[in-house]
Amino acid sequence: MSELKPSQQMLSSCAGAVITSLFMTPFDVVKVRIQAQQRARLDRSCFLYCNGLMDHICNCARTICTHPESAPWYNRPVPVHLNGTVDAFVKISRQEGIQSLWSGLPPTLVVAVPNTVIYFTSYEQLRAKFHQFAPEEAGGPPSWAGGLAGGLARVWSVTVVSPFELVRTKMQAKSMSYREVGEVLQTQLAKEGVLSLWRGWVPTILRDVPFSILYWYTYEKQKKLMKQEYPTFTFTLFAGALSGGIAGTLTLPLDVIKTHRQIELGEKAIFADPANGTKSVGSTRTMLQNIYRQQGIKGLFAGLVPRLAKVMPACAIMISTYEYAKRILRKRKSVVVDT
User: Fold this and answer.
1) What is the pLDDT of residues 204-213, one digit of tens each?
2) Do residues 315 and 13 make contact, with C-beta atoms less than 8 angstroms apart?
3) In this predicted model, which residue has the larger pLDDT, 50 or 116?
């Protein structure tokens, strides 16, 4: 089979991002709505919506009980109490229509699709370059080339998307228009410089890059062991889930720190008091020390089961869709070449 062009790799990753979002979004919509109904406990606080492709800050304090139709999708009250995941699926579908289970899809696609396209295409290009210069191992190209390519691709995609993520967060946190966001960014650039557009870059890199290295190394290792140079759909489902599970477990402490930091940044943006100033967001090291001091080592590995329940299917769907799309494009390319 012939190799694909970057444009075809971009098309494949785009298809993977869209299909992953379509499958995973309803589960996180339900999870977030269950969280949002606990108003007393979540008053003046944020929580994360994450469907395996992106994180989305939700503000529980912005509930408009008298006009529920104008409330955000994640804070729209349901007339009946939600008791667990299955119950929430049934009741939300009945009360608001089944389409409401995909309420969080637009903000996901706006950032997740370009981010995924940059990430996967960069990975393929870097891996191909490394294979040209790396010595062959038994069974094929070295697996470390995949891990290194994955880590560098994640650094590049995070760097490119970070300014757009900052804009999205500001619009989401304070319901700003594009013009208002532009004015805020101009003021921020004048006061803090261009590097302020990459605020939060370090904790994102600390979480996502180790995950990417472990994920792609494990995935490429499985391909080599199972002799799957052009992997089948069934293989990619299982290999993607296993690779995501291993990477998700080993990088869980970094994910806990990143989650704490994102929520703190979200609350700072939403509940800022211009008159009194705002409390600065702690460094990654400070958060690590605080979590360890308050909860011990267990605090750094909190939420392992929910994380794996999200990461493993998301990774399985993403990589299997991506590889399947590549397989179709390879066949079409081969047919064109033969004719």
Assistant:
1) 788 889 999 9
2) no
3) 116
